[in-house]
Write the structure tokens for this entry.
Amino acid sequence: MTGQRYEFSNAMKRKIAVVAGGDSGEYEISLKSANVVLSHLDPNKFEPYLIVIRGKDWYYQDAAGLRHQVSIGDFTLHLPGREIGFDGVFIAIHGTPGEDGKLQGYYDLLGLPYSSCDQATSALTFNKYLCNHYVSGFGVRISKSVVINQSDEIHINALPEDIGFPLFVKPNRGGSSVGTSKVKSRDELIPALKTAFREDSQVMLEEYIPGREIACGVAWHQGKLVTLPLTEIISKNEFFDYEAKYEGKSEEITPAVLPDVVAAECRDISIRLYHRLNCRGIVRFDYILNGLELFFLEVNTIPGFSELSIVPQQALSAGISLQELFTEAMERALEMR
């Protein structure tokens, strides 16, 4: 490495890599999230660079459209005549490798602080089946579910006796409802499994619980961990699928109109799980409200960050600007170095 010059930022303005892309069906959504983060990080405190990751192609694209490679060995950015070392990373990759713990482990090895949950928490929460059963140990209601591996010999007539129809078939390790189907009869099961197996080698069959879908964002604001205003998600489709999430086929009501006792319980469970799961940064918990009973669905450790995404809507409803939201998340990550 002799002769190379590394450029690190001074204490007044930190160089931050906002990483986006990834290797899942959420690639395009990740780019949208990252660009919003990039434009709202406080420019007086940070000098952000959008770093796109796809497979082994890691790069920064400058204003002229030229791509400059990022070294996977030490995560330095190679620009003409100089190399930039980063002070920290804001992870905006939904799905692998940003939400499943792989990047977190990599940055831990390099000693780089990052904005999201750590490697262990990310790996656990990305596995829907394991996370749900872990959460149930804290007395939180979950739906019934089973997991099928792609290598398993599947006997459809034996599945799923204790769950019944309708049910959901979804990739066990995935997000944005990519590859997810609502199955109403046994005849629909094989096509749904094939769709889900295209996204993951493990597929979860999950009990359908009728009710209202509620989302609770949790973030740090002015040094305190807070729950953001709750959101009720009303899908115009069969369920809150990819089209409903990103193509305007849903109505999102923030703040949600809920009985006070339900809203309080939702906020309490979310804060409790944030601590129990050892979460960091900005997180969103999703639930189904059946009558007055809340059922945990999943935790999104890197939720959507575009202006139309749920957590930014919740933050703005609470009077928290996106600059405040993202800047405080990054500042806390740097403090924990």
Remarks:
- The radius of gyration is 20 Å.
- The chain has a mean pLDDT of 89.
- The CA atoms of residues 79 and 209 lie 53 Å apart.
- The longest strand covers residues 212-221.
